[in-house]
Amino acid sequence: MTYLLQVDFQMDGPFGEEMAKGFAELAQSINDEPGMIWKIWTEDAAAKEAGGVYLFETKESAQAYLEMHSARLTSFGIQAIRGKIFEVNVPLSMINSGPIQNK
């Protein structure tokens, strides 16, 4: 079973290419998180929102990452962090070409 973690929060920036350059090292480190399969980074510069959608091997690894990441974001002064964990329905996701394979 795989689990999807959805996280979003208010952020003043950076966004776009500046975000990609500024957070490249962080993105690399996320690959080493226990149970993490992949992450899709999300952003909405107009609404000043950012976040991500992650796929984890277990609910426990998703929960542990959410707790660690929320603490990290809070240390950066980010508040009102929203995180939700969902069980993935693999058969339906496969019909719609969902990227559910393991790394």
UniProtKB/TrEMBL annotation:
Keywords: Monooxygenase, Oxidoreductase. Coiled coil: none annotated. InterPro entries: Dimeric_a/b-barrel, YdhR. Signal peptide: none annotated. One of its GO terms (molecular function) is monooxygenase activity. This is Monooxygenase. The lineage of its organism: Bacteria, Bacillati, Bacillota, Bacilli, Bacillales.
